[in-house]
Amino acid sequence: PCMHASEAVTALPETLAGIARNHVASFDYFVQHGLPEVVKRLGKVTLQVPGTKDPTSRVHVWFDEISLGKPWRDGDSASSSRDPRLFPRECRESSSTYKAPMSATLAWSFGEYGNVFRRKFRLCTFPVMVGSVACHLWGASGDDLICKGEERHEVGGYFILNGIERIIRLLIQQRQHYIM
Question: What is the pTM of this model?
């Protein structure tokens, strides 16, 4: 069926959102469920002090949590005059990567029933998908997007690496007549 021009304009944002929906949902699943699953599957590591067989000289080490934060400005976050949050537009303009700190909580104990000690530390900085739950634009209305320098119908589903928008495709299609 034929669409009028006004219908095509309103249908376009929904079509674009549908295109990126699976990419964003996949990244959201990684952040919300995948990282906790990694922690669960890593398990506990037991180390024995060399030269001893005493069970009280064993050290048990495990990860309690691995989490991905949200992008923040480096250095000037203490300034009250500027918003410390980092937005995708700023990364495009400054040729930087839209990334957030990934941190982990390491736990350890001495002996079988010793006290448990914990320490949270930063693992790395991890690229954040625009429009995901780790992005500051997640759930923003069209007017909020415009205030942050984005387009009203921003759908996300891509990364900003060194100021360039990149789509990472994780689907591999087998080529015809190509031996694997």
Answer: 0.76
